[in-house]
Amino acid sequence: MEDSHPNSTTIPSDTASHPTPQSDAAPKPTPPPSRPTLIQKLRFLLLRYLAKTAGTTDRTLVRLSKLLSTPSGTDVLLCTTSYTLTLIHAVLSRVLERRLASIATEIAEKAEGVLLPGETLIATLPAPTSTKVIAQTVGSSKALASVISDFRIFVRLWGVLGLYTWARDTYQNPLPEDASRKEKILRVLTWTAITSCVGFQILENGAYLSSKGALTTASWTGDVGKAREDAWWLWSSRFWAAYVGVELLRLGVQRYYSSPSSSVSVSQGDGEKEDKIQREERVKAKKLEKWLWWKDLASNLAYAPMTVHWSMEQGLLSDWGVGACGIVAGGANLADAWRRTA
C-alpha cells in the first residue's frame, strides 16, 4: 500500500483560514521630513567653510615651508615683499603729502583775515587718526624694506661660490665638435653672463662691506673711501645691467632658433599606453619650457629699467617706478618658485 504524499510541504498559517478584516479608512499619508531651520543651515555652512579654510591653510603653510627651505625661494619671497613695501611707501607718502598740504592750506585761509602783515602763526594741531595711521605705515614700510634689502645683500656675500661652480660646470662640459650655431651662441652668452655676474658680485661685496665699516684701509676711509664706495655701487649695478642684457639676448636666441617642428603634437589615435604617457610627458615639458621662457622675459624686462636706474648717479626712476618694476620682476620669479612647491 503506497503512502500518500501531500502536494505541498508548506504549513498553512492561521491567518489563511481566518482572514483579517480590512478597514475601510484610507491610510494616513507619511508626513514630509522636517526642513532644517535657518540656524542649522548657517551652522552647516560655517562648519563647511571652516573645514575648507583649515585644509587650504594647511596646504598653504606646507608650501610656504618648502619655499622658505631653499635660499632661492627665500630670496624671491623677500624680493617681492621688499618692492611691495617700496611701492606702498611711495603711494602713501604721496597721500600723506596731499593731506598735510590740504590741512595747511585750510589753516592759512582761516588765518589770513586775522593776522596782521608780518605776523606768523605757529600752531600745533592734533592730526586725524587716519593721517596718523598713514604716517606710521609710511615709516614702518620704508624701514622694513631697508632691512630686507640689507639682508638680501648680506646673504649674497658668498654668492661668488655659486658663480664658481657655474663656471666650473660650464668648463667641464664643452660643446661637441658638431655643435649647432644656436648652441655656440648660447655658450658664448653663458660665459658673458658668468663674467658680468662675477664683476657685479665682487663690486657689490666691496661696496657693502665698506658701507658697514668693515674695510678700514686708507683707500676705504674718509672722503676717498666714500667716493670709492659710491663708484663701486654704480659699477656693480652696471655689471648687473649687462647680465640682464645678456639674458634678454639669450631669450631672443632661443626664440629665434625655435622651429615650429619642435612643437609637440598630440595624437588622439589608439596606441600603446607607454606611447601615450611619453607624449603627455613631452607636452608637459614643452609647456614648462614656454612658461620658463615667459617668466624669464617678464622678470628681465622689469629688471632692465631698475638696473639702468641704479647705474646712473642721478637715477632714472621714482620710488613708484622702482616698486612697480620690482613687484613684476620678483613676482614672476616668485610665481615659478611657488609652482615648484606644489
From TrEMBL:
Keywords: Membrane, Peroxisome, Peroxisome biogenesis. GO terms for biological process: peroxisome fission. Residues 1-20 have a biased composition (Polar residues). This is Peroxin 11C. GO terms for cellular component: peroxisomal membrane. It is found in: Peroxisome membrane. Its main location: membrane. It comes from Alternaria atra.
